[in-house]
Amino acid sequence: MSPLTVDSDRVAADHAPADSYTARHLSVLEGLEAVRKRPGMYIGSTDGRGLQHCLWEIFDNSVDEAIGGYCNRIEVILHSDGSAEVRDNGRGIPVDTERKTKLSGVEVVYTRLHAGGKFGGGSYTASGGLHGVGASVVNALSARLDVEVDRDGKTWAASFRRGVTGEFSAEGPDAKFSRRSGLRKDGKVPASKTGTRVRFWPDRQVFIKDAVFSFQILDERARQTAYLVPGLTIVLRDESAEGEEPKRAEYRFDGGIGEFCQHLSSGEPLTEVLRLAGDGTFTETIPVLDDRGHMTPTEVQRTLDVDVAVQWNSGYDTVTRSFVNVIATPHHGTHVTGFDRAVLKTLNEQMRAARVLKNSDDPVTKDDVLEGLVAVVSVRVPEPQFEGQTKEVLGTPAATRIVQRVVSERLREYFENPPRGAKQQARAVLDKVAAAAKTRIAAREHRENQRRKSALASSSLPAKLVDCRSSDDRSELFIVEGDSALGTAKLARNSEFQALLPIRGKILNVQKASTADMLKNAECSSIIQVIGAGSGTTFDLDSARYQRVIFMADADVDGSHIRTLLLTLFHKTMRPMLEAGRVFAAVPPLHRIELSNPRKGQQKYTYTYSDSELKRTLLELEGKGQRWKEPVQRYKGLGEMDADQLAETTMDPRHRMLRRIRIEDAEAATSVFSLLMGSEVAPRREFIISGASELDMSRIDT
């Protein structure tokens, strides 16, 4: 189709008659129909993450009962048929008739959007599920949902199919369904017994085929919740894996977030766990439904409770977990903003008072005071304002002011009047912050001194860099192990867009090194300098001199170790490169098979990349009657290849194979780097011992 034709079609569309768009083109989605039409608006996605979010909505309702003091036990079961069940011994969902809808309380909760007991009616002083859409959304997206409520000496039951009340003739979501409103009486229970049981089967018309519940994620959430609600017992059972023993876990922590902070902490502690607690009040205007059914703006006074646990340790990483009414806020919000401001301001004041920081010195920064800090920030407030239904960011403005005041007051008390035996701990924190500030300043000076003077060339760049001529989107930096491989790579590369930087053996393990030690290391500083985009929090992805960075090391154990050390450097200092998918590992071959009499059109050499691939290739050649020269060459290193072989197998974009290195889960990746590359030996030893039984002995390189 020519460009002229395309333009003509566009103009015709722009001048379509006005009466071609009328009211009959409009759609009105009633009730839960909107949820099924646009599920992503309510649960984020229709893959495993969205499915897990449905479970959180039901689970959080039980947790809200525990927060209010009405529940001390929650059970979560992942059944073998793909359904999930949540049980609690709370008060039980109301079963009497709601006067406006003439429906039972259970039906209101599960069939009406924005309906529930969390809109300021007095049932909950603080809750996570405040929007009133959680249970009804899960119901709308379920092929079947069953509710049982123990209340008033009876067991009441209701079933739903895709949000519609009714009855099923048998077990499971595929049973015959008949529409029917109202609750069923399923038996009697002692008058003192109360609670709710909810089981739902996700609708496969909505969720993708591969979407399943994750016991690992459930286990992490349950442990976290048990820390945040002291005295609550949470029991998990996973019966979903056929042919395997059901998994079970049980959590209860009476120490609250103090124990949670200890659990998150790594490295040598500089302080005990500090608890910073308090509250504050604020006024906000909210619409309130009056007796005539009108929404009237009303000023109400709120109380926001603050509970923070912090501990400084000898490490360099910062761990901050934040929660609102037990709901995790992974992207933080106004409460963490208040915490950060309080810590920064208080530490600056205390360092000047203790003369650790002189009046002429610049104030320390947020990164300085948070280095090595583990913090759990938890607030409870009625009707918090979240940004979006997924509740990942707190938006309540007053939280910043109240959290900042409470944390500042408690921290000031600790540093000015430390508890018995804690005076040295408080001083150690001030000294650590001062050391972090000095390291940051040294790193900044190093970066400024080493920054290249122009976009393509600079006298300050390392002499060993073999640069390319182009700086466009094709530009690549190969980090090459050893001078031998460098010599071959110079002849094999395309000098137009491929640059080379040699390193000598294994670089410094930066995971357990300070920033100052890293910058003193010639190999690490050269890599950061050549990429030219800074490091750490000042890294600027747009300033990177190369579009791709490729690790090119030998295909052996030493080469794997070198790639791991390089990856550790990028993860700690230049993580945006990994997040953008701009870091790769070259895949050089292990073997070269030289054919004796190659047939017409056949290559003389065949390359394989593993021992198993070599065996398969030789069997295939033998089956075709093709002979080869013995012995098959096994490369011990990149330096054994000539330039043509290295170009053909590893460097030429037309033939090579690269492995892109990505970060799918930044938090999990950080945990793995800390475990495998950090300074703590005991957890690493335990990890190796626990995984020894799963090791394939035949894969050990001897």
How would you describe this protein?
This protein is α+β, with helices and mostly antiparallel strands and 702 residues long. It is 34% helix and 21% strand. The chain is built from 21 helices and 23 strands. Strands 1, 2, 3, 4, 5, 6, 7, 8, 9 and 10 form a ten-stranded mixed sheet that branches. It has a five-stranded mixed sheet with strand order 11-12-15-13-14. Helix 4 (48-67) packs antiparallel against helix 6 (134-140). It is globular, with a radius of gyration of 31 Å. The model is unreliable at 1-16, 118-125, 127-132 and 452-459 (pLDDT under 50).
What attributes characterize this protein structure?
single chain, 702 residues, alpha+beta, 10-stranded mixed beta sheet, 5-stranded mixed beta sheet, 34% helix, globular, disordered N terminus
Main β-sheet description? 10 strands, mixed
Question: Helical stretch count?
Answer: 21
Mean pLDDT: 84
Quaternary assembly: single chain
- Structural shape: globular
Task: State the share of residues found in helices, binned by percent.
Answer: 25-40%
Euclidean distance between termini CA atoms:
62 Å
Instruction: Kindly name the structural category.
Output: alpha+beta
